[in-house]
Structure formats: structure tokens, C-alpha cells
Design brief:
Blueprint lengths: L6 E4 L2 E4 L10 H5 L2 E3 L2 E6 L2 E8 L1 H14 L6 H15 L5 E9 L13 E9 L9 E9 L16 H13 L4 E5 L5 E4 L3 E6 L2 E4 L10 H12 L4 E3 L4 H6 L2 E6 L3 E8 L2 E2 L5 H14 L10 E5 L3
Parallel strand pairs: 8-9, 8-15, 12-13
Antiparallel strand pairs: 1-2, 1-7, 3-6, 4-5, 4-6, 5-17, 6-7, 9-10, 11-12, 11-14, 14-15, 15-16
């Protein structure tokens, strides 16, 4: 059972979560014409009156761009202001996950994006580990990741996640924790809601943005961090067979953080994961505000402001 934060951002202000309700005829509910973001908020272990947000600027920019794909405008300053208001209204004392959502709010029945009202909301839930930090088992999904020519995959469009939902449930019902989706060209794309990395001979490899992946913010952070730490990083197409012979496989995402893959289909992967462990430890230090070299990745929200 999710523990929702008591206050949500709804129609331009903070209201009790139970009052942030929509009509059953809401356009976005029927047509998937919405776009969402996900952002982790962590109370500063050294200061209970401060909340740490990881790469809030990048999250706000991506949501603003996603809104443009829905032919509406949602500026980054509005997103930042609403997020800060939600945090101050709730004063969380444990790690939380914030879900901002821009959507078509009309009650009409025509599938369209023109001449239609849009709105923006935010709610939050308490969230620790989304996936087991000890590692997950993955199956290759029978569902294929959509192509950018059929859906605007550069944004987190809500309707696109039907494929993720089908893949995730298929994986869990067949005895696995997570799904890995191939793209229409037969190359590895991503997991149900995470990007994917492999390590071969000390080289960090990940499918490029031309492989119908979401441009993940954690993914971009891992790549930048790995290069700064002296690792070789290659963005290229990844074959299915490489998953079985890789030295390491891991997933990345806002909810998943950095999570190792311990098994793909029937193949157990090596337990030592030195590359992933170095990256995970460094990323954890950054998100907790303990790495001055990357303090610019952290937005600090004062609750007593």
C-alpha cells in the first residue's frame, strides 16, 4: 500500500491529497494524452530542514519538453515553484518520490491535442528501494519497444507506458522481476521503466538514443560520472546475446536508481560487479549531498524558508 504525501499540487495550489480528484470523463484518462516526470526528494541527513533534489533542473526541462510534445506550454519555473510548494506543505521526513503530471483536462471525447484545456498536478509517495539493491532477474519481453516515428519517445508520454505495463506483468507472471524490451530492429532498448547498461572487458556500454530509449536523466548522469572517473563509455546498439556474456548488467532510473541484474532468462550473471558498485557508491554520495564535486547536481529546498 502506497503512503501518499498528505498534500498535492492541484489546479494551481496545494490541497489535501484526497481532494485532488478528476472527473471520470477526463480526456487524458481515456487517451493517454499526458506526460509525467519522476523525481526523488531526500531529507538532508545533516539538516532536517532541508530537502535534496537530484538534478531537478534536468527533470523540469524534460517535463517542459514533454508538455511541448502535447502541444502545450509548461515552463520550468512553474514546475520548480510547484515542487518547492509541495515539499514545504508536506515537510517529508523520509525519502519520497514526486510525480509531476501534465495532462489534457477537458471532458471531451474527440482524440485531439488542439483547442483543449491542459493542467498540471504533483503528488508524492514515500519510496525506498523500487527494485532490490541485491539484484533482479530479467526476461526478454515478447513485447517490442515502440518506435519514435509512432510515438514521441523523447518525452515520458503516459500512453506509451501500456507497453511497459504489459512487459512488466508478463515478466512477473513468468517468474522474473523485470522485463528487457527489444526494439523493432532486434536490438536491446531498455527495461520496463529503466535504461540498461552492460560491462564488457572493463568498457561501459549502453544503447544510444537512436535505439528508441527514453533519454533517462539517471542514465545521462551515470555516463557523465563514469567518464569523469576515467572509465571508457560507449553508446551503441546492443545485441541480445551480449546480455548473456556480459561481465555486468545493470539498470538505471529515478525510481530504480542503479540496480544490478543477477540473471537474464536462464543465465546467471557474475556476482562481482566492480564497475556498477563504484558508480552506485558515487551516485549515492552525490544524491545525499556528500560529494562537493557534484553539488551542482543537487537542488536544496529549505523547509523553513
Amino acid at each position: 500500500m502506497h503512503q501518499f504525501l498528505p498534500q498535492a499540487w492541484f489546479r494551481g495550489r496545494c490541497v489535501p491529497f484526497a481532494e485532488a480528484t478528476l472527473s471520470v470523463a477526463t480526456h487524458a484518462l481515456h487517451y493517454g494524452t499526458g506526460a509525467f516526470g519522476g523525481m526523488r526528494a531526500l531529507p538532508n541527513p545533516a539538516d532536517p530542514n532541508e530537502i535534496l533534489l537530484f538534478r531537478a533542473d534536468r527533470h523540469a526541462r524534460r517535463l517542459s519538453q514533454s508538455a511541448r510534445l502535447l502541444l502545450t506550454e509548461l515552463d520550468e519555473a512553474t514546475i520548480h515553484g510547484a515542487i518547492e510548494a509541495v515539499l514545504r506543505a508536506n515537510r517529508p521526513t523520509c525519502p519520497v518520490y514526486l510525480r509531476p503530471f501534465v495532462y489534457t483536462a477537458d471532458l471531451g471525447i474527440a482524440p485531439r491535442l488542439h483547442n483543449i484545456e491542459t493542467d498540471f498536478l504533483i503528488y508524492g509517495i514515500e519510496l525506498g528501494d523500487y527494485l532490490s539493491p541485491e539484484g533482479v532477474s530479467c526476461r526478454i519481453s515478447s513485447w517490442i519497444r515502440q518506435e519514435d516515428r509512432s510515438l514521441p519517445l523523447r518525452g515520458k508520454i503516459s500512453g506509451a507506458y501500456i507497453t511497459s505495463s504489459l512487459a512488466k506483468t508478463e515478466a512477473v507472471k513468468s517468474g522474473f522481476d523485470e522485463a528487457i524490451l527489444m526494439n523493432s530492429r532486434g536490438k536491446v532498448s531498455e527495461a520496463s521503466g529503466m535504461n540498461l547498461f552492460i560491462v564488457r572487458d572493463g568498457v561501459l556500454i549502453t544503447p544510444g538514443v537512436d535505439q528508441d530509449i527514453l533519454e533517462g536523466i539517471t542514465r545521462a548522469s551515470v555516463i557523465e560520472l563514469a567518464r569523469a572517473m576515467g572509465m571508457t563509455v560507449v553508446e551503441r546498439p546492443v545485441d541480445k546475446s551480449e546480455l548473456f556474456i556480459a561481465d555486468e548488467v545493470f539498470l538505471s532510473g529515478t525510481a530504480a536508481k542503479v540496480t544490478p541484474v543477477r540473471r537474464v532468462e536462464a543465465t546467471d550473471l557474475p556476482a562481482p560487479r566492480p564497475v556498477m558498485e563504484r558508480l552506485r557508491e558515487r551516485l549515492t554520495a552525490i544524491t545525499e549531498g556528500r560529494d562537493p564535486d557534484y553539488d551542482h547536481w543537487i537542488t536544496r529546498v529549505r523547509l523553513d524558508a
